[in-house]
């Protein structure tokens, strides 16, 4: 009887061991399957489709670039970011003093709009600098256009050195076109010799300021 019980215990133990071994094998198989599925579709790797900005967000006209307009409350700029854009704060030095400004860029790009503020009764958009080539006027002009194209499209009243930039000003358009003065002839470095009529037509626009 004792021998029979011992045999029964041995067989029961062996059976349990076999079951545990099979269970471990099944668990390992399930783990491998899950790992393979995760490799094919990693957790958290599902990304939403990239937001595409509205084409109207890249239209630049007098007093306005896309959804940002001169005089708009800064709070509105920060809280109503256009689809496909991102906004962040930055610091500028103006007349020796630090001033907070805002950079509005299409997602995935490093250039867009630099929005400067003026704070009195409240902070509002004072000036907009267009740095991205994506923004265009209704006439198709923007950063990278040639001075000759700008002059043909908009009346240029004056050219001047302002804040270290050589600019062609169109009061009618409400825009100052910052020119790439490195392209100007070396024998005419005296900026006083330039006027709207003698700047080389192929001089490129590197920035546009709306005011």
Sheet with the most strands? 8 strands, antiparallel
- Oligomer state equals single chain
Number of H- or I-type helical stretches: 3
Rg calculated over all Cα atoms: 33 Å
Structural class: alpha+beta
Bin the helical content: 10-25%
Strand order in the largest sheet: 4-5-6-7-11-10-9-8
Mean pLDDT: 81
Percentage of residues in strands: 25-35%
Q: Can you tell me the residue ranges where pLDDT is under 50 for at least 5 consecutive residues?
A: 1-25, 36-43
N-to-C order of helices and strands: HEEEHEEEEHEEEE
Q: Based on DSSP secondary structure assignment, what is the total number of beta strands?
A: 11
Separation of the first and last Cα atoms = 105 Å
Sum up the overall morphology in one term: globular
Notes on the structure:
A hairpin with a 6-residue loop joins β5 and β6. The strands form two sheets. This protein has an eight-stranded antiparallel beta sheet with strand order 4-5-6-7-11-10-9-8. Strands 1-2-3 form a three-stranded antiparallel beta sheet, with no helix packed on it. The protein is globular, with a radius of gyration of 33 Å. With 211 residues, the protein is of the alpha+beta class. The N terminus is likely disordered. The longest helix is centred in the N-terminal third of the chain and has 39 residues. It is built from three helices and eleven strands; from the N terminus they run αβββαββββαββββ.
Quick summary of this structure?
With 211 residues, the protein is α+β, with helices and mostly antiparallel strands. Helix content is 25%, strand content 30%.
């Amino acid at each position: 009887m004792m021998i029979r019980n011992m045999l029964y215990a041995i067989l029961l133990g062996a059976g349990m061991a076999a079951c545990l071994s099979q269970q471990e094998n099944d668990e390992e198989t399930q783990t491998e399957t899950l790992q393979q599925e995760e490799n094919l579709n990693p957790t958290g790797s599902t990304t939403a489709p990239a937001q595409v900005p509205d084409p109207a967000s890249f239209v630049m006209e007098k007093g306005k670039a896309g959804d940002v307009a001169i005089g708009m409350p800064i709070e509105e700029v920060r809280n109503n970011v256009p689809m496909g854009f991102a906004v962040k704060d930055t610091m500028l030095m103006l007349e020796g003093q630090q001033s907070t400004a805002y950079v509005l860029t299409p997602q995935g790009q490093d250039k867009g709009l630099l929005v400067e503020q003026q704070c009195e009764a409240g902070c509002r958009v004072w000036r907009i600098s267009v740095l991205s080539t994506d923004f265009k006027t209704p006439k198709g002009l923007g950063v990278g256009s040639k001075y000759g194209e700008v002059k043909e499209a908009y009346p240029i009243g004056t050219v001047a050195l302002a804040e270290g930039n050589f600019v062609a000003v169109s009061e009618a358009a409400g825009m100052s076109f910052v020119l790439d003065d490195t392209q100007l002839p070396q024998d005419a470095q005296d900026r006083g010799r330039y006027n709207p009529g003698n700047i080389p037509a192929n001089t490129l626009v590197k920035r546009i300021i709306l005011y």
